[in-house]
Amino acid sequence: MNVFRLMPVLIAAMFLAAPAQAATVTSPDGRTAVTLDADGEGVAFYEVVRDGKPLIVKSALGFTFTDADPMRRGFKVVGTTTDKADTRWEQPWGERRFIADRHNELAVTFRQDGAARRTVTVRMRVFDDGIGFRYEFPQQAGLPTARIAEELTEFNLSQDGEAWSIPAGDWNRYEYIYSRTPISSLSTVHTPVTMRTAGGTYLSFHEAALVDYSSMWIKRVDGLRFRTLLAPSSRGAKVVRSGAFDTPWRTVLIADAPKGLFESNIELNLNEPNKLGDVSWFKPMKYIGVWWEMHLENSSWASGPKHGATTANTKAYIDFAAQHHFGGVLVEGWNKGWDGNWFGNGRDFSFTQAYPDFDLAAVSAYARRKGVQLIGHHETGGNTANYEAQLEPAMALYEKMGVHVVKGGNVADAGGIISCNADIADPCGKEVLEWHDGQRQVQHHMHVVEVAAKHHIAVNPHEPVKDTGLRRTYPNWVSREGARGAEYDAWGVPKNPPSHVPTLIFTRLLSGPMDYTPGVLSLEGRGGTPIPSTLARQLAYYIAIYSPIQMAADLPANLAKYPRELAFIEQVPADWAESLMLDASIGEYAVIARKDRKSAAWYIGGVTDDKPRAPSVALDFLDKGRSYTATIWRDGDGADGLGDQSAKHRIVIETRKLTSRDTLAIPMAAAGGYAVALVPAK
Question: What is the extent of the structural domain holding 571?
Answer without folding.
Answer: 483-682
